[in-house]
Amino acid sequence: MAGITTKQEKQPIVFVVSDSVGETADFVVKAAVSQFNSGFVDIRRVAFVNNLAHITEIVNEAKDTAAIIAYTIVLEELREALVNEAKKHGVPIVDILGPMVDALAKVSGRSPKMKPGLLRKLDKNYFSKVEAIEFAVKYDDGKDPRGVLRADVVIIGVSRTSKTPLCMYLAHKSIKAANVPLVPEVAPPEEIFNLARNRVVGLTIKPELLNEIRQERLRTLGLKSGADYASLERILNELDYADAVMRKVGCPVVDVSNKAVEETASKILEIIRHNLP
Question: Rounded to whole angstroms, what are the CA distances from 244 to 6, 30, 180?
């Protein structure tokens, strides 16, 4: 009866062979095994296979144990050696990656890179980006001064100079960015004065433009445009205060007037590029 293991049944063995970590083949094999509802298959992962001697050793062991070989080897010389050795010794093999790569190459007309470990590298980049986005959210608008010391870059400036959009844009490039608003009534965190000058970037803007932006912001919120927040006198006071803080920090300053977030981010990346791994 299907799904029942008898005493006479032999435990199947599958060698998962890869010239990288072998996670892809391991996942596929486990997915196949799950269809038998038995859990009696012995899966043995052999990672970072990088020479012909290792190929011969694996095939001989598979022959002696009557095992199957499932593989994700992209290096042509090793792949051909494995296929030939397995055929010579009658060892069943399953190419996990090859058919899909070949099909994509045929349809796209492009040649695959044929480099081991690219998926793992992509995964690493993805998680690095997610971590940076979470960082930007957690340390947005000076919520927690501890983020200042952990950030790749700290953005400082008055309200409505695009500090948050900039941090999110940088996060999508795996840059951990925190931002601190500069308000005359609130002293900035002392940490910003202890950082290397190219880890802090100040933002400034033309007063008249900031006046327009803040008035529009108030209208969006349904508030009176004559509020002190949007008055030119208040804006000039804030910009003077911010300028004094930036001079004390000794940081580079970027004028964001009429600049897209992407353009400002490009300037910031140029400033901090020496800080990045």
Answer: 82, 62, 15
Structure tokens at 100: 């899909």
CATH number for the domain whose boundaries are 125-275:
3.40.50
Query: What are the structure tokens assigned to 238, written together?
Result: 């804030």
The residue extents of the domains of the chain are 13-116, 125-275
CB within 8 Å of 28: residues ≥ 6 apart: 70, 96
* In this structure, CATH architecture of domain 13-116: 3-Layer(aba) Sandwich (3.40)
Three-state SS for 184? coil
Are 200 and 271 within 8 A, CB to CB? Answer: no
Q: Using an 8 Å Cβ cutoff, are 40 and 11 in contact?
A: yes
DSSP 189: P
Contact (CB, 8 A) for 1 and 36: no
How do residues 211-235 score in pLDDT, each as one tens digit? 999 999 888 888 876 678 889 999 9
Mean pLDDT of 134-140: 93
Q: Which 3 state secondary structure label does DSSP give 70?
A: strand
First to last CA, the chain: 58
- At 7 the pLDDT is 45
Please choose, from the candidates 243, 247, 177, 165, the residue with its C-alpha nearest in 3D space to the C-alpha of residue 205: 243
What confidence tier does 66 reach under pLDDT thresholds 50, 70, 90? very high
The β-bridge partners of 69 are: 15, 93
